[in-house]
């Protein structure tokens, strides 16, 4: 049962990553407003899903952790996609962010607070989105990761029947 849940979670993570690399990005200016609205709605949905998973863990310490892990992965991928979309639609907003892999790399280095400096925000839009991304990382992902580690630690230490 545990192995099935683990494989299902890994498969879902793989599908999320595949979707990140396959969802088309358009440079059509006519749809920019709608894309921005949809992106904000998806971001709000991600925050809500992570919050729901955090509440689930707080309310039921033995609840499966897969949902929390998937929510964190989804949140990181959404910001990577937003960064990539900005780089495509408004060249010059980011320095050295040219591919989806660059965007994922940038989102992960931002999350890890490593910031190698090779990819960075240059324009005001990119810096504004990056501020939101940093707050998301600190508040939402930080809380989720803290609960995930705490739950894993308590489950490892719990006596087995």
UniProtKB/TrEMBL annotation:
<feature type="transmembrane region" description="Helical">
    <location>
        <begin position="63"/>
        <end position="82"/>
    </location>
</feature>
<feature type="transmembrane region" description="Helical">
    <location>
        <begin position="6"/>
        <end position="25"/>
    </location>
</feature>
<dbReference type="Pfam" id="PF07885">
    <property type="entry name" value="Ion_trans_2"/>
</dbReference>
<feature type="transmembrane region" description="Helical">
    <location>
        <begin position="32"/>
        <end position="51"/>
    </location>
</feature>
<feature type="domain" description="Potassium channel">
    <location>
        <begin position="74"/>
        <end position="152"/>
    </location>
</feature>
<feature type="transmembrane region" description="Helical">
    <location>
        <begin position="125"/>
        <end position="150"/>
    </location>
</feature>
<keyword id="KW-0812">Transmembrane</keyword>
<protein>
    <submittedName>
        <fullName>Ca2+/Na+ antiporter</fullName>
    </submittedName>
</protein>
<keyword id="KW-0472">Membrane</keyword>
<dbReference type="InterPro" id="IPR013099">
    <property type="entry name" value="K_chnl_dom"/>
</dbReference>
<keyword id="KW-1133">Transmembrane helix</keyword>
